[in-house]
């Protein structure tokens, strides 16, 4: 059995996929049917390439390959096409997320929306439209990557169905994520779990699992409920971790400021727990900062101090580890059916994902 740890596997898959992704964009300009006079189309592809290659841990690619290894240790056809599809869908999500959030930076560079705003400072509607269309193009390319794959028709069709469903689930997740923040009451955990499941778990965990199994000749529909449960639990862990780090994380380590959820008025796991335990005077401090885009670092620090004093930080860490353990137990149940080494990877992944620093 290999002793390779999850971070090492992530790095190995990341290096290989980044080369594949760059080669894909190098040839895309010659395969995409666009009028020869168009300058905006190559510019759009350059922005998508820049965003796609600028960073990202490629965890979805890792899950895809490890899911195939649950079934076979031999090379599996179709994984490259599936990996491209997964990451192009992610690019689509990043473009639209940054537009929804009015974010200026992503992965150490300008977002697609702000890049277009810089190009068209006197035409804001054109910048908005081109951003939406860039995200839409990435989604279409995601599905085309699978349709062009040299795979049996039935496998190719099943993969497209997985990605189409993942995209639809994610869009619904984005809608209910916005809806959650409009609700007058603090959301309970079940609402937060549903948002995390639809918005991220289904396309970031469940879809890669299914695609890897399909490529390896397995029928994921036979194990739908346990795959969904594993993905949901990992997705909850990941969203809790993101929400925790947004207030209690180290800005230097993460490469972005803390307090974004507070300033934007998001009813995240952390914010919901803060509001549920804060005293009268503490709640006034939290609510004054919540949804205030001009909230100062000092005000965020005051909210953070309340969260630490009231045990929210410790509670979040405990909850993340509890859900990670539940996910581990689901994966452990795969051992009689699938390969030991790959099962062990999925067992260890939830806790590693929770414990990593940035």
From TrEMBL:
Domain of life of the organism encoding this protein: Bacteria
PROSITE patterns: POLYPRENYL_SYNTHASE_1
Cofactor(s) needed: Mg(2+)
Stored Pfam families: polyprenyl_synt
InterPro entries linked to this entry: Isoprenoid_synthase_dom_sf (IPR008949), Polyprenyl_synt (IPR000092), Polyprenyl_synt_CS (IPR033749)
Keywords linked to the UniProt accession: Isoprene biosynthesis, Magnesium, Metal-binding, Transferase
SUPFAM superfamilies per record: Terpenoid synthases
Keyword match Transferase: yes
Family per similarity comment: Belongs to the FPP/GGPP synthase family.
Protein name per Swiss-Prot or TrEMBL: Polyprenyl synthetase family protein
Lineage: Bacteria, Bacillati, Actinomycetota, Actinomycetes, Kitasatosporales
């Amino acid at each position: 059995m290999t002793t390779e740890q999850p971070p090492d596997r992530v790095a190995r898959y990341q290096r290989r996929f980044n080369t594949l992704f760059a080669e894909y964009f190098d040839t895309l300009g010659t395969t995409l049917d666009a009028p020869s006079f168009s300058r905006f189309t190559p510019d759009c592809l350059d922005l998508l390439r820049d965003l796609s290659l600028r960073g990202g841990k490629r965890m979805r690619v890792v899950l895809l390959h490890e899911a195939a290894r649950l079934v076979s240790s031999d090379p599996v056809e179709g994984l490259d096409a599936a990996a491209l599809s997964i990451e192009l869908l992610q690019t689509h999500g990043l473009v639209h997320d940054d537009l929804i959030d009015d974010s200026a930076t992503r992965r150490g560079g300008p977002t697609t929306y702000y890049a277009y705003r810089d190009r068209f400072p006197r035409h804001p509607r054109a910048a908005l439209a081109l951003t939406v269309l860039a995200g839409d193009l990435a989604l279409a390319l995601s599905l085309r990557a699978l349709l062009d794959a040299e795979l049996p028709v039935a496998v190719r069709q099943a993969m497209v169905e997985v990605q189409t469903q993942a995209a639809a689930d994610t869009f619904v997740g984005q809608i209910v994520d916005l809806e959650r923040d409009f609700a007058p009451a603090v959301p309970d955990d079940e609402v937060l779990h549903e948002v995390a499941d639809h918005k991220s778990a289904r396309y970031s965990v469940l879809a890669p699992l299914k695609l890897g199994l399909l490529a390896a000749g397995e029928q994921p529909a036979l194990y739908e409920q346990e795959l969904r449960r594993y993905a949901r639990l990992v997705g909850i862990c990941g969203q809790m971790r993101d929400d925790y780090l947004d207030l209690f994380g180290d800005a230097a380590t993460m490469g972005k400021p803390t307090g974004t959820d507070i300033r934007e008025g998001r009813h995240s796991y952390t914010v919901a727990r803060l509001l549920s335990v804060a005293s009268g005077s503490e709640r006034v401090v939290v609510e004054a900062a919540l949804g205030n885009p001009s909230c100062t670092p000092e005000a965020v620090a005051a909210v953070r101090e309340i969260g630490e004093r009231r045990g929210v930080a410790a509670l979040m860490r405990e909850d993340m580890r509890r859900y990670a353990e539940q996910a581990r137990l689901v994966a452990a149940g795969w051992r009689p059916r699938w390969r030991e080494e790959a099962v062990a990877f999925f067992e260890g992944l939830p806790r590693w994902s929770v414990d990593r620093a940035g």
